[in-house]
Structures are given as structure tokens and as C-alpha cells.
């Protein structure tokens, strides 16, 4: 009876969320660094010809590459739906950022608002990954 | 858009997800949700002053929604971890008595 109880207990130990992944943490930090560099530059040049989308198209391609790598890695892990959905939302936000840029970035305040949004999003994704590391 | 109301609703949702872990996560959650509410207010100002186009305002709002959802997913994920930790603690309590009674390490 006790044996069966033990088996039941061990079989019921669930893993509700994926384990920590150091490469995901590093990739998120890299992504954050690239975004910060971009926004700091844009804060200085907003409203000038140097802010033109075509001059920064490469930045979006580069970021998309980083994000694809991250998404594939996260999708491959079990019980990682939360992080995967967060990355999908980040990808959607990056597409919106690119569309905003195509329309023209005319003001410093616009860049500041965008920068704040991406900082909050990336911090949240990183917070979840770090919580997996330390176990909440 | 009433940012104070939105902030209140999001805080309540976060509190519900975290259960008894809310006190530990309260500071992070409230701080991030407050930043989101402030950004929402900035979008309204930029739009009202014609500093951005209508299309840009809509796209900014899409980003804002995505960001809010991202924060809530972190809160939900931490809620799941809290449940996992509670179960681990419960198993830890029965581990030694069961292993002692059996005479071998089952758990």
C-alpha cells in the first residue's frame, strides 16, 4: 500500500514550466543590447534625414535573425509555452516598430515611448527565464 | 482610455494569478504595470499633439498591448512556478518517512 502511495507521489511530481536555459538568457541580453543601441541612436537623430528607415533596414533583418534563433530554441523545450508566446508578442512588436519607422520617426518622445515599451517587454521575458533559474 | 482603471484591472488579474505568492511579486508587478499605464498616457499625448500619425498611434497601441500581455505571461509563469514549488515542498515532507519505511530510496 505504502509502495503504491510512493509510486503515485513520484508519478504526480509535475514539471509545470520549462527549465532555465543559459543560452536563452544570453540571447535575450544580446537582443536587449541591440535594441538599446538602436534607440539611443534614434533619440539623437529623430526628425533628421539620418533617421530614415532605409538607412536602418539592416537592423531589423539582424534582429529578426536573433529572434528566430531564440524562438526555435524555446519551442524545442517542453512546458515553455509562456516564453514562446512572449517571443511571438515580441516579434509582433518588432514588426510594428518597423512599420512605425517606415512612416518616419519625427520626435524624441516617440522614440522614448518605444524604448520604454521594449525595455518592459524584454525585462519581463528575462525575469521569467531568471525565475526558472532560481526557482522563483 | 482610463489608464487608472486599466491599471487597477491588470493588478487584480496579476494578484489572482499569483495567489499567496502575491506579496513576493507585488513590487515587480505593480512597478511594471505602472510603467505601462504611463506609456499609455504618453501615446494619448503624442496622438493628440499630432506628433505621430494615426497609423503610428495604432501601431504603438498594438506594441503596448503586446507588452502588457508579456508582463502578464511572466506573472502567470511565476504563478505556475509557485504551484510547482508548493508541490515540491509537499513531496519533501513525505520523502523521508516513505523512504525510511521502505528501506530504499523511492523518492
Which descriptors would you attach to this protein?
heterodimer; A: mainly alpha; 76% helix; B: 107 residues; mainly alpha; 3 helices; 0% strand; rod-shaped
| Alpha-carbon Rg of chain A, integer | 20 Å
Largest interface: A-B, 47 and 46 residues
Alpha carbon gyration radius of chain B: 21 Å
Mean pLDDT of chain A: 90
- Unreliable stretches of chain B (pLDDT < 50, length at least 5) are none
**Oligomeric composition of the shown chains:** heterodimer
Question: Helix count of chain B?
Answer: 3
What is the CA-CA span between the terminal residues of chain A? 35 Å
- Helix fraction of chain B, binned, reads over 70%
SSE arrangement:
The complex is a heterodimer of chains A (136) and B (107).
Chain A: H1 2-12, H2 22-45, H3 57-75, H4 81-103, H5 108-134
Helix pairs in contact in A: 2-3, 2-5, 3-4, 4-5
Chain B: H1 3-18, H2 22-48, H3 54-102
What does this structure look like?
The complex is a heterodimer of chains A (136) and B (107). Chain A is an all-alpha fold and 136 residues long. Chain A is 76% helix and 0% strand. In chain A, helix 2 (22-45) runs antiparallel to helix 5 and helix 4 (81-103) runs antiparallel to helix 5 (108-134). Chain A is elongated, with a radius of gyration of 20 Å. Chain B has 107 residues and is mainly alpha-helical. Helix content of chain B is 86%, strand content 0%. Chain B is built from 3 helices and no strands. In chain B, helix 1 packs parallel to helix 3 (54-102) and helix 2 runs antiparallel to helix 3. The longest helix of chain B has 49 residues, at 54-102. At the A-B interface, helix 1, helix 4 and helix 5 of A face helix 2 and helix 3 of B.
Task: Please give a quick description of this structure.
With 136 residues, chain A is mainly α. Chain A is 76% helix and 0% strand.
Amino acid at each position: 500500500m505504502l509502495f503504491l502511495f510512493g509510486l503515485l507521489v513520484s508519478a504526480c511530481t509535475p514539471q509545470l514550466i520549462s527549465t532555465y536555459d543559459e543560452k536563452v538568457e544570453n540571447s535575450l541580453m544580446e537582443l536587449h543590447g541591440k535594441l538599446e543601441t538602436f534607440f539611443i541612436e534614434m533619440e539623437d537623430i529623430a526628425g533628421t534625414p539620418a533617421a530614415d528607415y532605409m538607412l536602418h533596414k539592416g537592423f531589423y533583418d539582424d534582429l529578426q535573425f536573433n529572434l528566430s534563433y531564440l524562438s526555435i530554441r524555446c519551442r524545442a523545450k517542453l512546458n515553455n509555452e509562456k516564453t514562446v508566446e512572449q517571443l511571438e508578442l515580441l516579434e509582433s512588436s518588432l514588426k510594428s516598430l518597423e512599420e512605425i519607422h517606415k512612416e518616419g520617426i519625427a520626435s524624441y518622445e516617440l522614440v522614448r515611448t518605444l524604448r520604454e515599451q521594449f525595455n518592459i517587454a524584454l525585462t519581463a521575458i528575462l525575469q521569467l527565464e531568471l525565475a526558472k533559474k532560481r526557482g522563483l | 482610455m482610463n489608464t487608472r482603471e486599466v491599471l487597477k484591472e491588470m493588478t487584480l488579474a496579476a494578484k489572482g494569478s499569483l495567489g499567496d505568492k502575491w506579496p513576493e511579486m507585488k513590487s515587480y508587478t505593480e512597478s511594471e504595470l505602472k510603467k505601462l499605464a504611463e506609456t499609455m498616457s504618453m501615446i494619448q499625448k503624442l496622438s493628440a499633439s499630432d506628433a505621430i500619425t494615426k497609423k503610428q498611434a495604432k501601431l504603438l497601441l498594438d506594441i503596448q498591448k503586446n507588452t502588457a500581455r508579456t508582463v502578464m505571461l511572466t506573472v502567470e509563469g511565476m504563478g505556475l512556478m509557485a504551484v510547482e514549488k508548493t508541490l515540491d515542498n509537499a513531496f519533501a515532507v513525505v520523502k523521508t518517512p516513505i523512504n525510511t519505511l521502505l528501506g530504499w530510496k523511492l523518492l
